[in-house]
From TrEMBL:
Residues where Zn(2+) binds: C188, C191, C208, H221
Organism of origin: Strongylocentrotus purpuratus
Catalytic residue list: C324, H763
Protein's UniProt name: Ubiquitin carboxyl-terminal hydrolase
Family: Belongs to the peptidase C19 family.
Residue sites binding substrate per the record: W198, R210, R211, Y212, F213, Y248, Y250, D253
Keywords tagged on the record: Hydrolase, Metal-binding, Protease, Repeat, Thiol protease, Ubl conjugation pathway, Zinc, Zinc-finger
InterPro entries assigned to the protein according to its UniProt record, in alphabetical order: Papain-like_cys_pep_sf, Peptidase_C19_UCH, Ub_carboxyl-term_hydrolase, UBA, UBA-like_sf, Ubiquitinyl_hydrolase, UBP13_Znf-UBP_var, USP
Pfam families attached to this UniProt entry: UBA, UCH, zf-UBP, zf-UBP_var
GO molecular function: cysteine-type deubiquitinase activity; zinc ion binding
Location of the region described as Disordered in the Swiss-Prot/TrEMBL record: 377-399, 590-611
Length: 802
């Protein structure tokens, strides 16, 4: 009877086509999924998934009554000793097969209890059912067989191990020098090393690889040979198998794919099909390096049997392709009342005003994630473990913020991928999105915003200038020279250099990590620095200035970032392996900026002597104007291309002819700045442009650039994206709400730690103090911390003491 009823709704049932995305992993409003107690309801028209609490909402909005109800029961299989051995990580990825802490789906068996449900009465038709109309059968089969939208996006985004196709492979020069390489027994031709060996694919020379940061690895002989010969490609011996090998391009400076590798190896007598792996790949070596560094185990508290925790505010986040930076950041933010109150506590209000398709609504996805973390709904303590073994640690299900990750990363060059990212950069990216979507609503980021005061003093006149800027993060340098164990560290550095000179390796257990106090970092932040070639309007000449920074306002919550990631002398990124003593309570009152002081004389405005009038080839301008372009635009083109010719000027015109100010007179230097600062943006215009999703500062800048012409201002914004992103806003008038301010005394309540040698690899975890105890959030593992490694963090979160 119920099956026949479906004939009434055939016009509401579709078969997903090639362009349709099927959301069958999680609810658009919550984190219910097919394994949840009430399963997941997938609309057979829009293919959006909903938990039972929200499916009626979708029905009432769309009048789509037919849903495929997915219900899965997941049971864990007992592990064999062989399966336990296979759990060792083999690739630099988190939450991916073969990566760190990955959950092997082969360990589980599943029972599916699917049905078709008709709303509003939730009439259920169990499956399979041969009486269903053919269109319904096809729709069900297509939904079940389709790759879920989130998985398709993850596959598309994941390129953590993707290698570029080397541009040198197709036409690689190989010397006919008679070199034949045996299948084993290799040794560096310049030293005695017998591992980490690379064969150059041009001349067949076998040499050792690079020396690693801890002194292990090779002696750099393969790199030295490239510097002399410029032969581009080398293969790592011991990694060659019928499936490929590690190939490095010195020119492209990364691991690459050589599609002709078998041919290139045959040239030197190596049959790729007969080779077996005898050495570790570069991925495996980097994993070993990460796991060998003491901070890896220390930060994760790997040596302790930690007590799992469950309940509100104790929900883990599953790692979806190196998303640990996102997980750690969001755990901390939703431990701050302003974020909980703005999103989690107002989820019903936000959901009510949401569009019928909420997956692209930022406020909905923030509310969904906030409620998922704060409510405890997805952090229920299991009565027994999956295997039934009471001795096995209990584990919560946690939530996977798939839609949130996809939405926040959409269109971003880095965050749209599954590569590891910098947690600090992600924080700032997220704050900009929150600001854009807050508009007339409370912006929870206001509790984090601080104002910094920069003081510049002319060394000759002693006159001073004060400037203020806002920021969300107090980034402080790490002065290695202030290490409390400086003598031991210097001795270690000398010993390391001595061993390297002898081509010997440093034992990892002998590595000395500098110990530094936060106070020294703060002093380095506040210290005066010299500014060369500073133009002083007081003396109308360039001189040396002294610049220092203070904190003009203390926010409710203060974020401190330790600048651990820096550039080495060879301009390659590196991470400082240091220990910084971060106090539980912190008083920053001495670093408060109070503006100009009695007895100080303010430095007059002026960034330099007036610029001379540009010398423009008027003949070239006339020639361009005869082609039909505005004369003032032609003058700009000739000036900006420095009279180098009509071709260059024409190219400039083609790039800038759509600029709203293309035909306006050319103005430079002080005159242009003066005109811009005299224009006061209208409040009405600011509100109109902000309603388009731009910030207040961006709106002010656009209006000033176009004399408050609203229509031209909108065009200016879209034609000057680089200026909006890269040019600091000149704020001669107040912009937005004033930063919150209070006393400078704070208490540590959370910190995010990074393990690994760079932001491009490794792993993030966070520790948060909840109800007087420290809790470690390691993706979906939530436990009581026994020894929170407060000295090894990267980003610290303090709350003000009242």
């Amino acid at each position: 009877m119920a099956a026949s009823k479906l004939h009434e709704f055939l016009d509401k049932i579709r078969i997903p086509g090639a362009g349709d995305k099927v959301y069958k992993d999680e609810c658009a409003y919550c984190f219910d999924n097919p394994e949840s107690e009430t399963g997941l309801f997938v609309c057979m028209n829009t293919f959006l998934g909903f938990g039972k609490d929200y499916v009626r909402r979708h029905y009432e909005r769309t009048k789509n009554p037919v849903y495929l109800h997915l219900k899965t029961i997941k049971k864990k299989k007992p592990k064999t000793e062989e399966e336990k051995e296979k759990e060792k990580p083999t690739r630099l990825a988190i939450g991916m097969q073969g990566g760190f802490d990955v959950e092997d789906e082969n360990q589980y068996e599943y029972e599916e209890h699917n049905s078709v449900v008709i709303l509003p009465d939730f009439t259920e038709i169990p499956l399979p059912n041969a009486e269903l109309p053919e269109e319904v059968q096809l729709s069900i089969a297509s939904i079940l067989s389709a790759t879920s939208a989130s998985k398709a996006e993850q596959i598309q985004a994941w390129d953590g191990e993707a290698k570029i196709l080397s541009r040198h492979a197709a036409n690689l020069k190989q010397l006919d020098n008679g070199v034949k390489v045996p299948p084993k027994g290799w040794k560096c031709s310049m030293c005695d090393l017998k591992d980490n060996l690379w064969m150059n694919l041009t001349d067949g020379t076998i040499l050792c690889g690079r020396r690693y940061f801890d002194g292990t690895g090779g002696n750099n002989h393969a790199v030295e040979q490239y510097d002399q010969t410029k032969y581009p490609l080398a293969v790592k011996l011991g990694t060659i198998t019928p499936n490929g090998a590690d190939v490095y391009s010195y020119v492209e400076d990364e691991m690459v794919d050589d599609p002709l590798l078998a041919t290139h190896l045959t040239h030197f007598g190596i049959n790729m099909m007969n080779m077996e792996k005898t050495d570790k790949t570069m991925t495996e070596l980097e994993i070993d390096l990460n796991m060998r560094v003491a901070e890896w185990d220390t930060i994760q508290e790997s040596g302790s049997q930690l007590k799992p925790l469950f309940g509100p505010g104790l929900t883990g986040l599953k790692n979806m392709g190196n998303s640990c930076y996102l997980n750690s950041v969001m755990q901390v933010l939703f431990s701050i009342p302003d974020f909980v109150n703005r999103y989690a506590s107002k989820k019903d209000e936000i959901f009510t005003s949401a569009p019928a398709d909420p997956r692209g609504d930022f406020n909905v996805q923030m509310a969904k994630l906030g409620y998922g973390l704060a409510s405890g709904r997805y952090s229920q303590e299991p009565k027994t473990t999956d295997s039934g073994d009471q001795s096995e640690a209990k584990k919560q299900s946690g939530v996977a913020p798939r839609m949130f990750k996809s939405l926040v990363g959409k269109g971003h060059q880095e965050f749209s991928t599954n590569r590891q990212q910098d947690a600090q950069e992600y924080l700032l990216h997220l704050f900009s999105i929150i600001e854009r979507h807050s508009r007339n609503l409370n912006n929870p980021c206001d509790c984090l915003q601080l104002e910094l005061e920069e003081r510049i003093q002319c060394s000759q006149s002693n006159q001073v200038k004060y400037k203020k800027r806002t920021d969300y993060i107090l980034a402080v340098p790490i002065p290695l020279e202030a290490a409390t164990n400086l003598n031991a560290f210097v001795a270690y550095q000398a010993k390391k250099a001595e061993l390297e000179a002898k081509k010997e390796r440093v034992d990892p257990k002998d590595i000395v990590r500098p110990h530094i106090c936060l106070q020294d970092c703060l002093e380095a932040f506040a210290a005066q620095e010299k500014v060369e070639d500073f133009y002083s309007a007081a003396i109308n000449a360039k001189t040396v200035a002294l610049r220092s920074t203070r904190i003009a306002s203390f926010p409710d919550f203060l974020i401190i970032q330790l600048k651990k990631f820096t550039l080495g002398e060879d301009w390659t990124p590196k991470k400082l392996d240091v220990s910084v003593d971060m106090p539980d309570e912190l008083d920053l009152s001495r670093y408060r900026g109070n503006g100009i002081q009695p007895g100080e004389t303010e430095l007059p405005d002026g960034d330099g002597p007036p610029e001379p009038e540009p010398v423009i080839d008027e003949g070239m301008v006339s020639l361009l104007a005869e082609m039909g372009f505005a004369k003032e635009g032609c003058r700009k083109a000739v000036y900006h291309t420095k009279n180098t010719g009509t071709d260059a000027a024409m190219n400039w015109i083609f790039e800038h002819s759509a600029d709203p100010d293309f035909a306006e007179p050319l103005q430079l230097g002080q005159a242009k700045k003066k005109q811009k600062t005299e224009i006061v943006a209208s409040e009405e215009g600011i509100m109109m442009i902000m309603s388009m999703g731009f910030t207040r500062e961006q709106s002010i800048k656009a209006l000033r650039a176009t004399d408050n012409n609203l229509e031209r201002a909108a065009d200016w914004i879209f034609s000057h994206p680089d200026e909006l992103l890269d040019t600091p806003m000149e704020t001669e008038q107040p912009s937005g709400p004033t930063c919150r301010d209070g006393n400078g005394k704070y208490q540590l309540f959370a910190f995010v730690s990074h393990m690994g040698t760079s932001t491009a690899c490794g792993h993030y975890v966070c520790h948060i103090k909840k109800e007087g105890r420290w809790v470690i959030f390691n993706d979906d593992k939530v436990a009581q911390s026994e020894k929170p490694p407060k000295d090894l963090g990267y980003i610290y979160f303090y709350k003000r003491l009242n």
